[in-house]
Every structure is written in structure tokens, then in C-alpha cells.
């Protein structure tokens, strides 16, 4: 469904992605784990089109992206829930969700919103409140729900567990697992390698702008090098 | 009593012009957090282009429509050529760019048109209407009606339409706006085109009363800015209320104190708002949480 070939990206003169190759098949949950500053966020930004790439290409459902803008990629079904949630803090919860479906104006929008409320009942209670007033965990749920309103075939999810209490982290990972049942393919980026590998089918390990290792999630969890470097066991 | 009514009428008329300028500020501010100080030049262009197109033989409504469209196109060009290239620069730098643009537009207008004062025929004649012991010009009603119509239109746009929400979303978080599928470049085009058109409309409506020349934009931008600050930057309700209030303050100062102090009113309002209530009357309270 998603193929990345030799992708390079830079900030100013400093290259931070040095040729990334990666694939995500339809229906999979794939995770990219790695330390602080490895380039995981940059990778997702390049995939969704909010950051230019300097070399390589992205192929999504048969379309090749080099400079394609983000709104066209979303129309093809590639959505991105970015690092740090990036919700519209000045707008209400409901307005955030409605804008998630900005590309659409049909009966399905109302149904999708009901589904989002069913998935996160807390959002229904707070629908008329300014999104900036939600707690961190609630903002993360809103960010995921907003991305789902865009009817993604594939969701790029950046550090959904960041800064959340352990109970909420579990809840978020349950939601990620649940996306599979909704027919959404997921590319999940996490520093919480253990949590991510437990819900994923396959994983990539990223180190300073390169893919250092890849394989089935169970194999990576069992790998002694990974256990030492990322899982702290 | 009759004198008071007279001051109120003239204050509301002038205030409606300030409100129109302030409403123009609102859209660009909502899309980009930038205060566009070239907004006053749009008013000037609306008046000047209409005058010269009318002199060239075009019927007034056609001349006015042409002026509004041409000014809107200039607003879009301003965004493309001067504002977009500075994207990512601090807001203050962008505001300074708009000041530079306003100087450029003024200079060009002086060359292309002239330095004379020009008027237009009033749309519905010049016979004053008597109301409650005072008189009001029919053209004043056009100005006030125009401000009300633009206000209602903008209010509906921002609260009732998805496109209006997309404008708000773009200023709130540009990256997130792109990620929900909003073409943020197009939103900026829309904001500048619409703001410029509203400014030009103000120029068309007010020229029969106040006359127009190449240099009326600076003062109007300042007054509109004071009005927008007073009402709360970014809020159409605030722009309307702020404009009318500022016009009333000015007219009452001129009437009961001295017309010498009239011009100082806007400055005093700006300072007062900055010190006492930076959010303005209807300003949005920040609800950021990081
Ligand atoms: N806006 C920026 N300007 C310059 N350099 C940047 C910028 N954003 C990130 N970088 C650098 O690019 C590299 C990759 O950063 P990136 O945010 O993609 O890493 P990450 O894997 O997502 O890290 P984290 O786990 O902390 O979120 C880092 O060295 C970082 O310092
Ligand atoms: Mg990151």
C-alpha cells in the first residue's frame, strides 16, 4: 500500500534522513521505533507532504509522490496525526472533528462523527468546548479522531503515547489495535518501543536517519540487541 | 438635543467606515495573525478607481464593480508577491512588509491618478432626511447599510460555513490545517481578495461624502486599526462595535470639546485599550494549552 524508496530529507544544510526504504502492506500495523532525534517525525512529515524531500520517492496506492501537497495525499487516503497533537486549540471539539472531514460534504460526515464519539465517548461530552482546554490524553484522542474523519486508508501516527499516564497509554494502544478492525492500515512511530512492537505486525528500528533493523514485531521484541538498546531489559 | 442627534448621526456614519476598514483587517488577521496596514490603501483604490472609471464614461455601478474586482486582484497579488515569500518570518516582519506595500501603493496611485481631491455623485441624491430633529444624508444610510451587510456576511461566513472555519483553522495551526486537507495557500488568496474587496467597497460608499485622494489610506488604516483593537482583533462583532464607537467618540469630541482634538481620539483609544484591556471588547481569550 505504501512504499518508500531511498528517501532523503534535510533541515537547511543538514541531512537528517539518509535514504530510507520501507513498505507497509494493506491491513498491517507497522511501527518505526528509535531514539530521540533518529528522524522518525521527519519521516512521517515527508510521507504526508508537509515537508519536502530531497531525494527518493513515496508510492501510495499506485500514486508516486515527490512534491504532491498534503491535501492531495489525504484525498488519496493517506492521513497523518502529527507529533504533539496539533489540534485546533481555538476551535471547539466538534469543529475540530468537522474540519477533519474538510474534504467531504456528504451524509457520511455525520455518521463518521457519531462513530468518533462512539470510539471516544469523552469527546461527545466535550463537543462544544474549546479543544485547547482538553487534557493531554483527551487532546490525543481528538487528534486521532480528527485524522479518522478524513477517511484514511492508511494513518501515519506520531508518538500517540507521548506524555501520557500509563493507564492512558494502554488505552491509546488499544485504540491503535482497534483501527485494524476498522480497516485502517497504520504506520506508528514511537519512542515507547515495547508498547508499539506489542501492537504491531512488523517493525523498523531507526538510528540517526537510517533503518538499522527490520522484521516481524515478535522477532524484534525477542532480539537481544533491541532488548538492550530500546526495551531496557 | 438636536445638536447631540446631529453628532450621533455623523459619528455613526464615520464609524461605519471605520468598521468596514476594521472588518477588512479581521479576515486577514483570522487567516494569518497578520495586521495588514495596506488595508487603508484598498479603501483609497476603491474610491480612486471608481472615480476615474466613471470619468472615463463607465456608468457608476459598473465603475464601482470594476474597482472592487481590481482591488481584490491587487490584494491577491500583494499576498503572492510580498506576504507568501516571507512565510515563516516573525509576524512583526510581515506587518512591516504591509506598511512598505502601503507606501508603494500610495506612490503608484499618485503617479497613475493624480494628487487632486475627487468626489462621486451620491447614489440616492443629496436631499437630507430629517430624523428626530436632525438630518442625515441618504449616502450615510448607504455607508451604514454597507457596514451592516458586510458584518452579517462575515459573521455568517466564520460561524456557519466550512470555508470560514478553514480560514480560522489556518491561522490557528497551519500545519494541522494542511493535514486535514485545507489548501492553505488558497485560504490566504481568499483572505486577501476578500479583505481588499471589502476595503474597496468602503471606498466606493464613502467617496460621495468625504471625497478621495491618493493619500487617504494612511489615516483610514490607523482609524480602522484603532477600531479593531477596541472591539477585539479578529472578531467581526468587535470590528463593527469598535468602528461605530470610535466614530461616536470622534464626533462627540469634535462637537463638545474641539475639532482640534478629534484626530487624537484614535490614538487615545489605542493606548487606552493596550493598557486597560488588550483583548478588546469582544477579543478571543487565549485558550492555549501546551
Ligand atoms: N525544525 C527543525 N530544524 C532543524 N533540525 C531539526 C528540526 N526538526 C528536527 N530536527 C533535527 O532532525 C533530526 C531528526 O528529528 P526528528 O524530530 O525527526 O526525530 P524523532 O525521531 O522524531 O525524535 P523524537 O523521538 O524526539 O520525536 C534531529 O537531529 C533533530 O534535531
Ligand atoms: Mg518525533
From TrEMBL, chain A:
Belongs to the ABC transporter superfamily. Keywords: Amino-acid transport, ATP-binding, Nucleotide-binding, Transport. Transmembrane segments: none annotated. InterPro entries: AAA+_ATPase, ABC_transporter-like_ATP-bd, ABC_transporter-like_CS, BCAA_Transport_ATP-bd_LivF, P-loop_NTPase. The keyword ATP-binding applies. One of its GO terms (biological process) is L-amino acid transport. This is Amino acid/amide ABC transporter ATP-binding protein 2 (HAAT family). Pfam families: ABC_tran (PF00005). Gene3D superfamilies: P-loop containing nucleotide triphosphate hydrolases. PROSITE patterns: ABC_TRANSPORTER_1, ABC_TRANSPORTER_2. Residues 2-233 form the ABC transporter domain. One of its GO terms (molecular function) is ATP binding.
TrEMBL record, chain B:
Keywords: Amino-acid transport, Cell membrane, Membrane, Transmembrane, Transmembrane helix, Transport. This is Amino acid/amide ABC transporter membrane protein 1 (HAAT family). Coiled coil: none annotated. It is a multi-pass membrane protein. Its main location: membrane. It is found in: Cell membrane. The chain crosses the membrane at residues 7-31, 51-78, 90-113, 140-158, 179-205, 211-231, 238-258, 264-282. GO terms for cellular component: plasma membrane. GO terms for molecular function: transmembrane transporter activity. It comes from Rhodovulum visakhapatnamense. One of its GO terms (biological process) is amino acid transport. InterPro entries: ABC_transp_permease, BCAA_transport_permease. It comes from the Bacteria. The keyword Transport applies. Belongs to the binding-protein-dependent transport system permease family. LivHM subfamily. PANTHER family: ABC TRANSPORTER PERMEASE PROTEIN, BRANCHED-CHAIN AMINO ACID TRANSPORT SYSTEM PERMEASE PROTEIN LIVH.
